[in-house]
Structure formats: C-alpha cells, structure tokens
Amino acid sequence: xxHLGEILVEQFGVEPGDVQNALTAQxxxxxxxxEMLVGQKKISEEDLLRARSIQSGLELRTTLPADPxxxxxxxxxxxxxxxxxxxxxxxxxxxxVAVAEPHYFQQLDDLTGILQWDGxxxxxxxxxxxxxxxxxxxxSGSRDAADQVxxxxxxxxxxxxxxxxxxxxxxxxxxxxxxxxxxxxxxLSQAVRDNASDIHIESYKDRVKIRKRVDGxxxxxxxxxxxVQSKLISRIKIMAKMDIAEKRLPxxxxxxxxxxxxxxxxRVSTLPTAFGERVVMRLLDxxxxxxxxxxxxxxxxxxxxFQQLIKAPYGIILxxxxxxxGKTTTLYSALSILNQxxxxxxxVEDPIEYQINGISQMQVNTKIGxxxxxxxxxxxxxxxxIILVGEIRDLETAEIAIxxxxxxxxVFSTLHTNESASAVTRLIDMGLEPFLVxxxxxxxxxxxxxxxxx
Length: 454
Known about the structure:
Elements: H1 4-12, H2 16-29, H3 33-39, H4 45-56, E1 59-60, H5 78-84, E2 86-90, E3 95-99, H6 105-115, E4 121-124, H7 127-155, H8 161-164, H9 179-193, E5 198-203, E6 208-214, E7 217-222, H10 229-239, E8 251-259, E9 262-273, E10 276-285, H11 300-309, E11 315-320, H12 327-338, E12 345-349, E13 360-363, H13 372-379, E14 386-389, H14 395-406, E15 410-415, H15 420-430, H16 434-440, E16 441-446
Parallel strand pairs: 1-4, 3-4, 11-15, 11-16, 12-13, 12-14, 14-15
Antiparallel strand pairs: 2-3, 5-6, 5-10, 6-7, 8-9, 9-10
C-alpha cells in the first residue's frame, strides 16, 4: 500500500516539499497529514477523500441516505459509532458499512460481528455525512420509541400513575412497563446521549413541550399531549423526592441515576405557571468531570498568570460569567492543584457539583436556615487555609468573605456578571466599601462557554 503522501504528490499535484513540511510538523502536533494539508489549503477535502479511497482501495460514497434505517441502534452504541466514525447502512438494494477512517480494522470487525454482517462491503464516506447519518438514525429510533410510549400513555388508566412509579439504581435496567416511566427514561437517555446540559419540560395551554439544551442552544425533543403533563411531572417529582401534591410553589430537588455506565446528577427545579408546572433539569455527568486547568481553553499567558495567582497565601479570587459558563469547573480545577496533604480546604456550595477527595464540602440548605453566609461564618472557625464559596449573593456573604481574606485565608468564589470589571461594581453595589474590595480582591477572571464546532 502506498503512503498517502506519495499518492498526493503523484496524482493530486501536491509539492513534495509541502508533504515533507507537514510530516515534520506532524511529530510536534500529532495531527494527520491530510488534515494539515487541507488546513494549509494545499489540497481540497474532496481530493483528500479521493486520495484515501485510492490508498485503501475502498469505494468512495460522497453522500449517504438522508434517513438511514435505525435497525442497529439497540445493538450498537452511538458513542462507538461516533468515536470511530462508521455507520452500517441498509437499503432495499444493498448493505454496507460507511467509514471515514479506513484503518480501524478491529473496530470494523467488532461492528460487523455484532450485526452478523461478516464479509459485508465497506465504503469510504465524508466524516460530515457519517456524523449526520448517525444522529439521524438514533433520532429516528428515539422518535419511533416516543410515539409508541405516547400511544401507550393514551391507553393507560390516568389513576395508575402513583402505583407504577419505582426508583431504580440504573435507569437502563428499569424494565417497568409503565408508559410514563418509559417516556421519562427515554428523555433522560437521549439527553445524556446528546451531551445536553439541561432538559426543559414546558406547559402550555393545549400541549407540553420537551426540549434539550446542547452547546448552549435549545432543541425540540418531543411534544406529548396535554393530558400527559401531570403524569410526567409527578414521575420526575417522585424521583427528585419532591412533594407531588404541592403545585403552587416552586420546588428544588436532586436525582442521581446511572445511564450507560455514566453517573448522572440532575438538579431539578419546578415552577408554577399559568398552564401548569414547568420543570428544568440540569444534567451533570460525574464520570466526565474535567478538573485540569490546562484543558479548559485559557490562553497561555492567562493560564500562567492564573496558576501564579491561585498560589497566593490570602485574598479573594473571583470567577465571573453567565449561568452555565463553567465557573465552578474552573474553581474546582484550581482547588485540585492546591489540594495537598498540608492544606485544609473547605467549601460551601449550592449544590455540591463535584465531590473531591481531601476537601470538606458543605451543602447549603435554606429549608433549615443554612445559607452561604451562615456556612461561611462556621467554616472560618474550622481552621481553613482555603475556602470556596459557591456564589457571593448578598452583602453578608461578601462581608464575611472579605474579612476571611483579610485575616489570612485564600477565598475562591463566583459572581454573576458579564465581565471582570463589573464584578468590582457589583461588590460595591452590594454595600462593600471600595477600600475593602481593593485590599482583598487578588484577581477576577471572566469566562464563557464556547460552542463546539462539530
């Protein structure tokens, strides 16, 4: 088999020097030869795909069926297909496996073995086509399952909901035949599969809308009929240990489940509206927690400066940004660096999002009067070296944080402001004296969550 570089030079007019330069750079950045040449505009993506087809001897398919048959979704995980960029395709005329990278031989054998497709044809296809086809197949399968569940709910006795609700350790092991349980499981499973950060269940006059937030954008999932609303919300309330009879007041709860070997923590919030309660669930995948400052996307100069600042003996370090922008992740990444045997670190949070060994973490509980301010006041008497306050929400919390910083403690916290300069104004607006802010605040970091390009 010829090297890809040789084919590009001989048949696609790429200069040998360009190939050699790309190969040299490959040792430093680890990127593929073809990917670098496309990025340098030495070759088009179409020609690169043709060259790979020549190299591998695989037939090239530039397009795949728009609505692929989802026959395989119960046997093959979406994660496997997306990781290795391959998809089985079955049409009335032929069956084949489309791949974007021809060299995953073992994974291809595993896939064809699971499907009992030994000896099936393999074709080469653009990565974008495969990605779209995978999503389309699993979305189609989910829609079919949802349609069946909603039909079952239509036929179900409306009074049977409470007797059918059961708790489960692993969501996908729940074999209950109750349609409403199937619908909730389906919604949660699809949201986790799509890496959604939130699930919205919204109540309107004549319908219910279920949406998911992926990379900061809300997408529609399902629109079950109006009469499903009370059953659906009751199921979620019981999972979150809420009062299902209370529909006039907002409630907060928490659900811990396992889906496909992932530990998922859901923060549940209900809100009474004109047409019934709406529910928002924030999803946190504990198995995918990233607590590495160097992997968070900071510029090198900002990273070096921040790493220096977090090692100060005292003062306040604030992280600002909109809700869901990763402020807590950044602070926990800093704490993971500072978490040493000779250091006493205590946090007060609402809720505890990540559990870190070696750090004492306290959960705010307003129902019994345990607030940020009260928790922080107690923490100061626990001989801490470093304190994390989940959020500075009021003057009392801000004053205690300032006093803690001025008496030799390093304090980390967050503020809901859009940029770092606004944090100073916000603290002063709360009622803090400007001289206290200037003498205690070491640094303010503003951040955003950037959408991925897929």
